[in-house]
Amino acid sequence: MNPLRRAWQSLTSVRGFRRFSGITVLLLWVIFPSGGLVRLTGSGLGCSDWPLCNAGGIVPASNQHAWIEFSNRMFSGAVIVVVIIMACAAFGAEGRSRAAKIGAVVAAVATVGQVPLGAITVLFDLHPLLVASHFALSLIALAAGVVTYLQAADVAAGVRRAFSRGATWLGALFAVALGTTVVTGILVTAAGPHSGDPKVIKRFGMLDHAAYVHVRAVVALLIVAIIVGWFVWRRRDDRGLVVPALWFIPFFIAQVVVGEVQWHNHLPWQVVLVHVTIAGVVWGLGVSIAWRLARPITSGADG
Q1: Residue 198: is its pLDDT beyond 60?
Q2: Is 299 strand, coil or helix?
Q3: SS3 of 232, please?
Q4: What is the rounded CA–CA span in Å between residue 252 and residue 249?
Q5: CA-to-CA distance for 185 and 217, rounded, in angstroms?
Q6: Backbone angles phi, psi at 192, to 5 degrees
Q7: Is the Cβ–Cβ distance between 47 and 85 less than 8 Å?
Q8: For residues 83 and 103, what is the distance between their CA atoms, to the nearest angstrom?
Q9: Average per-residue pLDDT for the chain
Q10: Prior bond to 116 cis, omega within 30?
Q11: pLDDT digit string (tens) for 199-229?
């Protein structure tokens, strides 16, 4: 058998697609600290051209900012290839579901969309809303990748799920609370001191005001999370729901603690980078909870 055909069959098998989609989710998460490092070290304009780094060549000049930005571009390019492969595999995977195919396509479109958005962001000298939209698009890609993986995991476990009216409303409420918290956090970033380049001083909004709204959104998410926790306990036999919920607790607490530390220490970039990294984990776990909460098990054994 042709090696490429053998690799494709392995990739589109039940276990193979679950494994590959899981790896893809991990790579989509790494984009968060990778992109965050570019902005927080002031390397957003380290490469003056797009898609080349400097005029006349792809390889950047020998300075730290150029290499940080260039490395992020190369990594993002590799992730784009992986996500496109996942999207193609979703249509040939054994036991493929409609949600997995949609999720994989959305992840691919959002990831590829970072390319023109990145060019526009550089051309407009890192406008804070364009930088924020970069982060938002990463959130969409990660959420879609997570849904794809969850569907693949259910197929591998022989589990069938379906939307339930009451559960769907609760899942949607949690998703809205989570999304509001993340969006308000992005607006804090847009108003904050880390523009992506020392020469860029234009910010969006007032930092104190943005932080005030963000803290209230976090409190609202905490209240909704407590309500969700009670429903998760009632469905504690659903391991696919319970596991991400249990992991969500320590990461959410860590995110709150790191947020307080960075605020009271005037937003040092190293601590902000940790905050951004954990935000990706909290977002991925939160999407898992919302999706699994909205779709209780109808048949099969979760595990």
Answers
A1: no
A2: strand
A3: helix
A4: 5
A5: 9
A6: -80, 180
A7: no
A8: 11
A9: 86
A10: no
A11: 655 666 677 888 889 999 999 999 999 999 9
Single out the residue of 181, 140, 186 nearest to residue 194, CA to CA: 186
CA distances from 193 to 201, 205, 219, 242 (A): 8, 12, 24, 38
Contacts 24+ apart (CB under 8 A), 269-276: 269/40, 269/41, 269/194, 270/40, 272/36, 272/40, 272/194, 273/33, 273/36, 273/37, 273/40, 276/32, 276/33, 276/36, 276/40
Phi-psi map region of 11: left, alpha, beta (phi>0 left; psi -120 to 50 alpha): alpha
At 192 the pLDDT is: 67
Question: What does the pLDDT read at residue 197?
Answer: 54
What is the number of structural domains in the chain? 1
Distance CA 34, CA 30 (A): 6
Return d(Cα 181, Cα 119) in angstroms, integer: 28
pLDDT digits (tens, 9 = 90+) for 50-83: 666 776 666 666 677 778 888 888 899 999 999 9
pLDDT (0 to 100) of residue 103: 95
Q: Tell me which amino acid residue 194 is.
A: H
Amino acid identity at 239: R
List helix spans (H) across the chain: 3-11, 14-40, 64-90, 98-123, 128-157, 165-191, 207-234, 239-264, 269-294
pLDDT of residue 132: 81
41-53 average pLDDT score: 73
Q: Band of the pLDDT at 302, cuts 50, 70, 90? A: very low
Query: What is the rounded CA–CA span in Å between residue 183 and residue 218?
Result: 11
Residue 94, Cβ density class (10 Å: 0-12 exposed, 13-18 middle, ≥19 buried): middle
Whole-model pTM: value is: 0.91
Q: Which domain holds residue 111?
A: 3-299
- Per-residue tokens: 43: 């390397």
